[in-house]
Amino acid sequence: MADRISEYRIPYNVPPFTGREVENMRIACEVNHKICGDGPFTKQCSEKLKELTHAPSVFLTTSCTHALEMATHLCELRPGDEVILPSFTFVSTADAVVLRGGVPVFVDVRPDTMNIDEKLIEDAVTDRTKAIFVVHYAGVGCEMDTIMDIAKRRGLFVLEDAAQGMMASYKGKMLGTIGDFGALSFHETKNYSMGEGGALLIRDGEYVEKAEILREKGTNRSKFFRGQIDKYTWEAFGSSYLPSELNAAYLLPQLEIADEINDRRRAIWHRYYEGLRDLRDAGRIELPFVPEGCVHNGHIFYLKTKDLTERTALIGHLKERGILAVFHYIPLHSSPAGLKYGRFHGEDRFTTAESERLLRLPLYYSLTDAEADEVISEIHAFYGAK
Hints:
The chain has 386 residues and is an alpha/beta fold. It has two domains: 21-256, Aspartate Aminotransferase, domain 2 (3-Layer(aba) Sandwich), CATH 3.40.640.10; 258-384, Alpha-Beta Complex (Aspartate Aminotransferase, domain 1). The protein has helices at residues 21-31, 40-53, 64-74, 91-98, 121-124, 144-154, 208-215, 221-225, 245-256, 258-281, 308-320, 336-341, 351-355, 369-384, and strands spanning 57-61, 82-86, 103-107, 129-135, 157-161, 169-170, 173-174, 181-185, 198-202, 294-295, 302-304, 343-344, 358-360.
């Protein structure tokens, strides 16, 4: 591997790279002469994603953020409509609601998975509730049977923010394919990357044509290129959610070895788990929990320290030794925008307290066993000195 542009010997993240990405980008430029959206590489990525996720319809997008925004458009979220979601998530989950004039209604998370607490959702439903937004934290599925039952009885859409969930599953179903809409991320930090990018997964065929029009700036251009109409025109509201062919050319080789990348990340995850199990058993730290029926994808390996002070000290200890470990989200409900646009329903028993203890360890496709062992050793050294 080329020298890393990082002050850390073991950075938190290194984007995946198979070695075939650059050649694909050359082909897009020199052979296909097609570098804008919806070219051959985009189509191949979409087909490969259908194969990997078993989703009926897949639309590659410029980001997971835009996939989430498309989903709120497709479920016709209107000003004043409420969407129930966790506060422990990235801002894009709530932004997609706010941009449509909706109201994010935050509920607490489960401390074991950091996912939305399914038992608190129904109490947050009002006559203005339009949808439930679930976030599969660290590639571990939410309790979808319960959530889908609530949605069915209450007539609500379910939108899955599966930004971290590619190749992970819940009771045999791939994350992002269970609800009405799912959104994947191919950001630099994800298991599979195109730099910036994402995908919208659609369960029901009735939304496919609407999604095509929305994604193509509100035009029926896709029909035109399929030869279904002799000219295309502006039909509805839309925007440009098409990623560049160059991004898709970069992503495709990773999707072609998706199982290999997934297996390697899971192996690192399990190496961390086994290497830190003794500290967990001694009550010094807590380790991730994966419920029965969930298959994770090794997206994040986190541990929980005693408190914020201890987490800060551990981060400092690792940094001094050239290892970058990082915390995660600041809960949205306590942020300036969260206070302005949304509200928290019920009691914040775990969201803030647990987020202040959570620390993510380096985890990426090219991380070596020796590097993972060094991280484990330094964590032991930290607790051995306490």
